[in-house]
Amino acid sequence: MPDRTRLDGRVALVTGGSRGVGRAVVRRLAELGAEVAFCYRRDVGAAEELVAELDGRASAYAADLATPGAAAEFVAAASADLGAPTVLVHNAGIASSGRSVEHTTQEEYLRLYQVHALAGAEACTAALPGMRTAGGGSIVFVSSVVARGLGAGLAPYAMAKAAVEALASVLSFEERTNGIRVNVVAPGLVSTEMGDRLVRAGSASSAAESLDAHYPFGRVCRPEDVADVVGYLAGDTSSYLTRQTVVVNGGGNPDTLVHEG
Q1: What tens digit of pLDDT does each residue of 29-75 get?
Q2: Is 18 in contact with 93 (CB distance < 8 Å)?
Q3: Residue 51 CA neighbour count, 13 Å, CB half
Q4: In this protein, which residues make up the domain named Ketoreductase (predicted)?
Q5: How many Å apart are CA 16 and CA 254, to the nearest integer?
């Protein structure tokens, strides 16, 4: 009996794959057998290091998703090199500045909306024709518990992530007869550079590591915890799941971001 967890022979694209959660997702998809292409914004060294580590199972493309059209260009370039993807993970994101709503600029709102939501829509638009031709696929958006509006100083981030979840819901309906599943992974606080910035933006007094005690498992979420769920949603063992949001926070209280310390 074939192993339905495997992704052998499939092409998977990941936005924002050089660091943090995206890096763990690229690793996990490659471990499952997929040929992975990921984009990165500026950290060439980290991208090249990951490509070397995975020994030919991944390729990297420079793309600043704050630029309209860049996500579609990444999908087009990777598809030309590897073939049409049947797995797309939109993970790319940037953190809020930490300003209150009163002091947040329109520029910040628009920049986060572009990277989180519009770039996701652009990537899907570019990837969908190939998925339909292949008979189906899996799209996974990485959101956040912050999409529920938790955290002072996080309005642009929360609004952008809420838009991501709305996009995923609509897209799941539109593509349900084409064999394309669309799901969301919503982590709590993740132990990454951006996770630490979100803690500080959310007015907590300490970094991610000092919040471990507030979680039932004694630690905050790790990038690999998110990547494992993404790997599951990408494969055939989740073939009956679509329009779902999987919260990955270890049973922790998301209010910890702002109310503790």
Answers
A1: 999 999 999 999 999 999 999 999 999 899 999 999 999 999 999 99
A2: no
A3: 13
A4: 10-190
A5: 24
Catalytic residues: 157
Residue positions counted in the chain: 261
| Number of C-beta neighbours around residue 141 at 10 A | 27
Burial of 185 (0-12, 13-18, 19+ CB in 10 A): buried
Domains of the chain, with CATH numbers?
11-259 (3.40.50.720)
Q: Which is nearest to 61 in space by CA: 80, 82, 47, 79?
A: 47
Question: What is the rounded distance in angstroms from the CA atom of residue 111 to the CA atom of residue 108?
Answer: 5
Smallest Cα–Cα separation from 243: which of 161, 172, 186? 172
What distance in Å separates the CA atoms of residue 66 and residue 8, rounded to the nearest whole number?
Answer: 32
Looking at residue 99, what DSSP letter applies? Answer: -
- The answer to whether 236 and 2 have CB atoms below 8 angstroms apart is no
Starting from the edge strand earliest in sequence, which strands make up the sheet with 245-248, in order?
A: 58-62, 35-40, 11-15, 87-90, 137-142, 180-187, 245-248
Looking at the DSSP bridge assignments, the partners of residue 62 are 40
pLDDT tens track for 120-157: 999 999 999 999 999 999 999 999 999 987 778 899 99
Give the separation between CA 177 and CA 194, rounded to whole angstroms.
37
Classify burial at 136, counting beta carbons within 10 Å of its beta carbon; exposed 0-12, middle 13-18, buried 19 or more: middle
